[in-house]
């Protein structure tokens, strides 16, 4: 399979909430293959379906060599008293990194290709990934979470970028 092009900020698919997957058919199986192949590259922590132009609720991750996927993910728990505030980037906003506050811990529930329940949880980078990717599926990009001053800098950098 060919690796699909990443949609860049400004593409409406990134701002459109993704549809729930109701039938696990060949299209969904192919999507999962594409997501797993697309995330299995250096520097890629996660990849949401809409980032490759598919408006379905699915994403893949690659955190410290642990690669996986989840269909119909829902962010069901985040730590409410522990946060992280590190630089965050996005394949759809290439080359730009900004400090983004996220919960230290996150838990996502969804299903796999057999329709069986899947729970994905983690701290630090995995938690950041889970929150970032579920945001994508809701039509959000990480710059939406930046504080006002940082968001202003980010939008200026995006306007001045060559992507």
UniProtKB/TrEMBL annotation:
Record EC number: 3.5.1.88
Active site: 133
SUPFAM superfamilies reported for this sequence: Peptide deformylase (SSF56420)
GO molecular function: metal ion binding; peptide deformylase activity
Entry cofactors: Fe(2+)
Described function: Removes the formyl group from the N-terminal Met of newly synthesized proteins. Requires at least a dipeptide for an efficient rate of reaction. N-terminal L-methionine is a prerequisite for activity but the enzyme has broad specificity at other positions.
Similarity remark: Belongs to the polypeptide deformylase family.
Annotated residues for binding of Fe cation: 90, 132, 136
Entries under InterPro entries matching the protein: Peptide_deformylase, Peptide_deformylase_sf
Signal sequence extent: none
GO biological process, one term: translation
Pfam short name (any one): Pep_deformylase
Enzyme class, UniProt record, top EC level: hydrolase
Keywords, ordered alphabetically: Hydrolase, Iron, Metal-binding, Protein biosynthesis
Cross-referenced Gene3D superfamilies: Peptide deformylase
Cofactor notes: Binds 1 Fe(2+) ion.
Top-level division of the source organism's lineage: Bacteria
Protein name, as recorded: Peptide deformylase
Catalytic activity: N-terminal N-formyl-L-methionyl-[peptide] + H2O = N-terminal L-methionyl-[peptide] + formate
């Amino acid at each position: 399979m060919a690796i699909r092009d990443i949609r860049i900020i400004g593409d409406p698919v990134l701002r459109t909430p993704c549809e729930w997957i109701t039938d696990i058919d060949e299209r969904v199986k192919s999507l999962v293959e594409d997501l797993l192949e697309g995330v299995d590259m250096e520097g890629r922590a996660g990849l949401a379906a809409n980032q490759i132009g598919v408006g379905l609720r699915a994403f893949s991750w690659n955190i410290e060599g642990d690669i996986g996927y989840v269909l119909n993910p829902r962010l069901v728990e985040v730590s409410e008293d522990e946060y992280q505030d590190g630089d965050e980037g996005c394949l759809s906003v290439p080359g730009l990194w900004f400090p983004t506050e996220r919960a230290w811990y996150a838990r996502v529930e969804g299903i796999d290709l057999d329709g069986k329940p899947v729970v994905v949880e983690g701290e630090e980078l995995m938690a950041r990934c889970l929150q970032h990717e579920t945001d994508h599926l809701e039509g959000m990009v990480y710059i939406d979470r930046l504080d006002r001053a940082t968001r202003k800098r980010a939008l200026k950098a995006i306007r001045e970028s060559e992507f």
